[in-house]
Amino acid sequence: MLIRTRSTADPRPSEITPEAVYLDRRRLMVGAGALALAGLAGRPAGAAAPEDFAPLADVAASPLSTDEDPNSFEDITAYNNFYEFGTQKEDPARYAGQMSTSPWEIRVEGECAKPGTLGAADLIDSHRLEERIYRLRCVEAWSMVIPWVGIPLAAVLDRFEPTGNAKYVAFETLHDASQMPGQRRSVLDWPYREGLRIDEAMHPLTLMVVGLYGRALPNQNGAPLRLIVPWKYGFKSIKSIVRIAFTQEQPPTAWNMSQPYEYGFYANVNPTVDHPRWSQARERRIGEWGRRETLMFNGYADQVASLYSGMDLTRQY
Ligand SMILES: Nc1nc2c(c(=O)[nH]1)N[C@H]1C(S)=C(S)[C@@H](COP(=O)(O)O)O[C@H]1N2
Ligand SMILES: [Mo]
After folding, report:
1. How many helices (H) and strands (E) does the chain have?
2. Atom 7 (ligand 1): residue with closest C-alpha?
3. Distance from the CA of 113 to the center of ligand 1, in angstroms?
4. Which domain holds residue 33?
5. Is the CB of 263 under 6 A from ligand 1?
6. Which pick of 121, 164, 204, 281 has the fewest CB atoms within 10 Å?
7. Mutational test site, ligand 1, from 137, 146, 239, max ligand atoms within 8 Å of CB
């Protein structure tokens, strides 16, 4: 996301990782080889290393994965948007370590038969974990390919038995400036909030993420539980969730509240609807030079276009 005072959306050349650092999917399968490769290529001091994160057991590969090569662990954990820790891309890697993520509970309430709390550890233990390699397209016109580990959000929400009045689902991030120094500044109206229509929340592509690269989720990526909605701009994929509410009305969302003419509720990736200040037709894949064409619904049109039939996506952006 961009605040108005910033002048460029693009990563600086110094933030672009050399090709040799990439871990492709096959190297991921033999973790030790991948680590050796990262070591040879030279990781910057202080950067997160995969071995710092606990491996997740019994992760099944998902047929919903893209066949594109994932970005490196280093790209994924060093170039982040997580404004609770600062507005620069390297701030989350630097500061998110001060957030305590265990124990962690999500309060679930609103239009459901069984409101309650959800412990992150219990959730991980009681569901089958899937690896889903998804493109993440940031509204700032860059993208990454990330091997997430998660649980279909529908399976998580079903536990609380949403009622027929549940038309939307609202999500909130932790609000605690003692752990999140970025919240001392009113860059956004904290806590960070997001929301989905119930059919979007229940769509099989929507994932409650608990890890990446087969390991527990790094704090800078939204530990211990964050959303991924792969056909929407990255800002819909809210991190470090502490509250979920089923609602009858469309819930307020952080970026829409802050800059409604720039960031809509739907935020579907759409190369034909430009942001007021820049084109959305192309994107830079982090780690690559040049640009790729942005795909309608981030490449997931076959699966999700029907959710929006009859809607004017120029107006409901
Ligand atoms: N709580 C919270 N969630 C957030 C953000 C944020 O600032 N705060 N940034 C969003 C944006 S703009 C993007 S592009 C993605 C980035 O996810 P990543 O850093 O794991 O790649 O997180 C999203 N989720
Ligand atoms: Mo973003």
Report:
1. 9, 13
2. 82
3. 31
4. 13-308
5. no
6. 164
7. 239
| Beta carbon of 71 within 6 Å of any ligand 1 atom | no
The amino acid at 123? L
- The finding on whether 149 has its CB within 6 A of some atom of ligand 1 is no
| 50 is a domain residue | yes
Give 14-54 pLDDT, tens digit per residue. 333 333 333 333 333 334 444 444 444 555 656 789 999 99
Q: Is residue 2 part of a domain?
A: no
DSSP secondary structure letter of residue 166 = -
Whether residue 41 contacts residue 22, with contact meaning beta carbons closer than 8 Å, is answered with no
Q: Which atom of ligand 1 is nearest to the CA of 173?
A: 1
Q: How far is the CA of 187 from the centre of ligand 1 (A)?
A: 14
202 assigned to some structural domain: yes
Q: What is the dihedral of CA 152, 154, 157, 159, to 10 degrees?
A: -90
Task: Give dist(CA 78, CA 44) in Å, integer.
Answer: 10
Name residues of the chain where pLDDT drops below 70. Answer: 1-46
Ligand 1 binding pocket includes 140 (Cβ within 6 Å) = no
Does residue 31 sit within a domain? Answer: yes
Is the minimum distance from the CB of 96 to ligand 1 under 6 angstroms?
no
- Nearest residue (CA) to ligand 1, atom 1: 239
Torsion sign over Cα 189, 190, 192, 197: negative
Give the pLDDT of residue 47: 73
Q: Which residue lies with its CA nearest to atom 21 of ligand 1?
A: 80
Which of 147, 133, 137 lies closest to 9, judged by CA? 137
Which amino acid, 269? V
Q: How many domains does the chain have?
A: 1
Q: How far is CA 258 from the centre of its chain?
A: 19
Q: Are strands 142-152 and 168-173 parallel, antiparallel or unpaired?
A: unpaired
CATH number at residue 154: 3.90.420.10
